[in-house]
Write a structure and sequence with these properties.
2% of the residues lie in helices and 37% in strands. By secondary structure, it is mainly β. It folds into two domains: 35-124, Immunoglobulin-like; 133-284, no CATH class. The strands form four sheets. Strands 15-13-12-10-11-19 form a six-stranded mixed sheet, with no helix packed on it. Strands 3, 4, 5, 7 and 8 form a five-stranded antiparallel sheet that branches. It has a five-stranded antiparallel sheet with strand order 9-18-17-16-14, with no helix packed on it.
Length: 285
């Protein structure tokens, strides 16, 4: 496990790179694969960490590139822009236009500055959705590391779309849970707001889909952190502020080093533990 104090450096300037290695020296191995998760206005990328594990002493960081993508021809463009660098085998490309396809690729850089060849290319197209919500680990980035199922912002006791699925700072006191990372690198869902508890939907087995989480009653909810596992479902009991409990659920689809990705559902009927998938848009605050 690499030390977690190593910062992730984001490069704001665009740059171009060829497919060839950049110099004589010993570049790291090419990243062996590349996968993606489609987000709202963003794409989350992850890849094999083989460039680091093959020779840790020669590894400096990864470079993430993007270019245009022609869906009809299934072709990536040739003008690659540098999106940023990271020491972790994952990266979120943000500020993308929904409905516009991009092609991505990753290289590895040695401590002497020599760059590997490219990973396999990966095309993706951001689109609006309440599924695939990205929440960062608080220890990586406070902004966007907290989540609240419902906040009655206008005080009318009813649930409007703009009040549901709110991604907030993990340092806020009014969130239902924050994502925490421990010293071993594991991510946890930690209840924050008074009256919030969490439990596995099924501790023994992964949950096939968010829609499979249909009932949240008759559980001993914990108010301490619970390990975030990819594919597992979680149910939450929260305080509605009106004497009634409110129930929510998430299914974690991806757990990385610095963030996780989840689907969520919330029951708007006060005190009702039956859960439905909410299709209203989430809002980051």
């Amino acid at each position: 496990m690499r030390a977690w104090w190593i910062p992730v450096v984001l490069m704001l300037a665009a740059a171009c790179s060829s497919d060839d290695r950049t110099g004589p020296g010993v570049p790291p191995d090419d990243p062996a694969d590349l996968s993606s998760v489609t987000l709202d206005g963003a794409v989350a990328l992850d890849w094999s960490d083989n460039a680091y594990t093959a020779d840790p002493g020669n590894f400096q960081n990864y470079r993430v590139y993007s270019t245009t993508y022609n869906l009809d021809l299934d072709e990536c463009g040739t003008s690659w822009q540098l999106e940023g660098t990271t020491v972790a085998p994952e990266f979120v490309v943000g500020a993308l236009a929904n409905g516009i396809s991009r092609c991505f690729s990753v290289t590895a850089v040695s401590v002497d500055g020599f760059e590997s060849g490219r990973s396999p290319r990966r095309a993706d197209t951001p689109r609006p959705d309440t599924r695939n919500v990205l929440v960062y680990a608080f220890q990586f980035q406070s902004v966007g590391s907290g989540f609240r199922f419902w906040d009655d912002l206008n005080g009318d006791g009813a649930s409007q779309g703009t009040e549901l699925g709110l991604v907030r700072s993990g340092g806020a006191s009014d969130i239902d849970f924050a994502v925490d990372r421990d010293g071993a690198g594991d991510l946890f869902l930690t209840p924050i707001r008074l009256g919030t508890g969490v439990e596995y939907y099924d501790e023994a087995d992964p949950t096939e889909d968010l829609a499979s989480i249909d009932f949240a009653a008759d559980r001993a909810y914990r108010d301490t952190g619970i390990l975030a596992l990819p594919g597992y479902g979680y149910v939450f009991e929260t305080d509605g502020g009106d004497g009634f409990k409110r129930y929510g659920a998430i299914r974690v689809s991806h757990v990385g080093q610095n963030f996780l990705i989840l689907d969520w559902a919330f029951q708007t009927d006060p005190g009702n533990p039956e859960l439905i998938v909410t299709r209203t848009g989430s809002r980051e605050r």
